[in-house]
Amino acid sequence: MKLDLIDVFGARPLAGNPLGVVHGGEGLDSAAMLALTRWLGFSETTFLLPPTEPEADYRVRIFYPAGELPFAGHPTLGSCHAWLSAGRLPKRKDRIVQECGVGLVEIRQDSELLAFKAPPLIRSGPLTDDERKSAEQLAGVVPESIVEAVHVWNGPEWQLLRLRSAADVLAAEPAARGDGAIGLVGPHGTSGEADWEVRAFVPRGRGQRAEDPVTGSLNAGVAMHLFASGLAQGSYIAAQGRMTGADGRVHCSIDADGAVWVGGRVVTIALGAELEPFAKSLSVSD
Q1: Which of the residues in the chain have pLDDT under 70?
Q2: pTM above 0.90, yes or no
Q3: Structural domain harbouring 195
Q4: What is the rounded distance in angstroms from the CA atom of residue 177 to the CA atom of residue 194?
Q5: Cα of 151 vs its chain's centroid, Å
Q6: Residue 286 included in any domain
Q7: CATH number for 110
Q8: Strand ranges in the chain using DSSP code E only, listed in sequence order
Q9: Per residue in 67-116, pLDDT tens?
């Protein structure tokens, strides 16, 4: 059982969202997985397991400090990168298929990027007036900056506020406590290397909230919404993370068949830390 440290979505190494990936995760039960996730302190840690679906190349369980997630974006790309780096070969030449809580997720290699096929939205449509007011307060944005407020659930229950501009997104002052996963997106205009600015505020347990550096699941929901509503065409680049000290770039595109892909650079930072002493000290297999 070994641990890799992976950087996902960074414009350069150590500028993205860090991820711990455990190979041989079947040796740990859920409590041990959560304990290791909390100790590492990353937004997520993943555990690679043998697949149970015949189409899948591997299965992954995704934990964050308050529990388990059915799907998350940067853990999907980071887990795939770690699986491939270990010398594994996918069943298909043009796709890697991940099994996780939302089912099967396709991943492809596109030059130096990995990209996942965005899962369908579980819930979409506008927020209620009460939901919008709560999201506005939790995100710390002024009401007049909000252009649109919608659900973009794809596993995580994201509420998205589309703001007038990237400057409005960067000016948000989120609440330190409160429930709910809130995303912000605003356009950069015609200048710069990114088309949209994104921020994500997520619960961390016991009412605490944190800002996530670069968030694949939110960007997937944002992309599904922007493409479907005609606010984006073909492809675009989203920037995220500068308010956390990160510098993320998320590449979003839509195929002719309507499939939305979310990708970025993935880099190994550390490889193969031995976890057997940890595993032996804990119960296994729930």
Answers
A1: 205-208, 282-286
A2: yes
A3: 129-262
A4: 30
A5: 16
A6: no
A7: 3.10.310.10
A8: 2-8, 17-23, 45-49, 58-64, 67-69, 96-100, 103-110, 113-117, 146-151, 158-163, 181-187, 196-205, 208-212, 235-240, 248-254, 260-264, 266-274
A9: 999 999 999 999 999 999 999 999 999 999 999 999 999 999 987 899 99
